Amino acid sequence: MDALVRPTVDPAFAAGALAFLLAGVALGTASGLVPGLHANNFALLLAGFAPSVPADPLFVGVAMLGAGVVHSFLDIVPALALGVPDAATAVAALPGHRLVIAGRGREAVRLSAVGSGLAVALAVPLAVPITWLMIRWYPTLRAHLPLLLGAVVVALVLTESSRRAAVGGLVAFLASAALGLATLDADPAAPLSTGGVLAPLFAGLFGVPVLVDALGGDGVPPQADPQIAMDARDLGTSAGAGSLAGAVVGYVPGVSAAIAAVAAMPAVPSESVDRGFVVATSGANTANTIFALFALVALGTPRTGVTVAIDRAGVPFALPLLLVAAATAACFGFALVVLVGDPYLRIVGNADYTRLSVGVLGLLALVSYAFAGAFGVCVLIVAGALGLAPPRVGARRVHLMGVLIGPLIAG
Predict the structure, then answer these.
(1) Using CA atoms, how far apart are residues 85 and 209, in angstroms rounded to an integer?
(2) pLDDT over 90 for what percent of the chain?
(3) How many Cα atoms are found within 13 Å in the side-chain-facing hemisphere of 110?
């Protein structure tokens, strides 16, 4: 009788993979808590250092993926804590900020963690059939990408709350598209050789305006208990919508998690719009990591900074191991959001918010200089001024994603 075949595990290999995964978790924790450090730029930094790491490229890929997943969990924390406007500008606040202003910041942190965690759990089984469909549809999608992105822009404009907001959103899109066309292909001299203009662009468009609006504000108000005031069905629906939105982000160039989450909003219960938006956006942001990995393996097209870094580092496409690494990193990310989020909100709440906002603005300028030199600081200032405009006319800042969509439409 033939002997039973038993799977074997190489202890040395498993220990090495775990060590690199933990290193990636640590890096993702640090990067996720730094305001203005965009995940794409952080991943390209890792890609720059990867060749000098004396280790199996697969281990390096595990570390990169782990860092990217944890970063996608934790970047909500500084976004909530360091971008809270004064009560006078609350009308321009993002949904997560409105929850913080209402004293529900601890709940918002947990909503984000649950949204990201559920999205990863849903993304892994969904990735196989969606990838199968995309392999067949991708040539058509690519051939008609400008039309698809144009339809996205039209939908975003038409779903604004008023005619004034719709016109303002269209102007914001056109202005950010012009900014993207003028800057994205630039290759400025900078201290970091793996830098680029994405960091100052995104920090300026989406980070600087909220901090400027918050200058002179009272910071984070006292936060109530962390209990989630959203029933399980609505929570699951929002997370599912976010996971499907992450699939769109993973396969369609130029579509961000915020845009995908806006598209997913019809699935979010109307009585829990702010909470549902936090869940869906966080879910799309994290699920995107899984779908982008499948897109890289199946189509050879890196869609995120992490997959670009994996591609550049020559990481073998050992999909089962990479998926296990992503799922394990997601568990760490979930726990870290809950452990770090409350103290982060408390520390910021006890700080001088004007000084803190100025300090963070200075940090964004420093990050911009590191990635794109003096040119990056200029881009930060111009983008920041542009980012202030949409809320003044009641429009969403998501129109500013024209900075990526515009150049893609223009070809």
Answers:
(1) 10
(2) 21
(3) 12
